[in-house]
Amino acid sequence: MTYIIEDHRTRDTRPVSSVGLWMVATDKVMSGWGMAPNRSLVAYPADGDHKQLAALYKFCDDRSDFIRVRTNLKLPRLHNGDHLSIYDVPSWITETDDDDDE
Fold first, then answer.
1. Nearest 5°: CA angle at 64, between 89 and 86?
2. Domain map of the chain by residue range?
């Protein structure tokens, strides 16, 4: 057996190696069965400004199915049986509000 990486991004199509910071979490619901007999991890590109990073952290931390929310410079090292899903940052986080700049 080996590990699986699925890139579900549609808006942010940069190569994985060009992303400077990742928000990573363990999906406790999906870990241990199906395509992830070991860990199921999720990752979001997190190299926006500090407001976006804080909002992305809150989004991940507030989800009851995510544990061990953290920022990494690289994607996590995967082991045999791990599953990693990469997603776009939710659009409501990346949208800018011009009223905040005034």
1. 30
2. 4-12+21-90
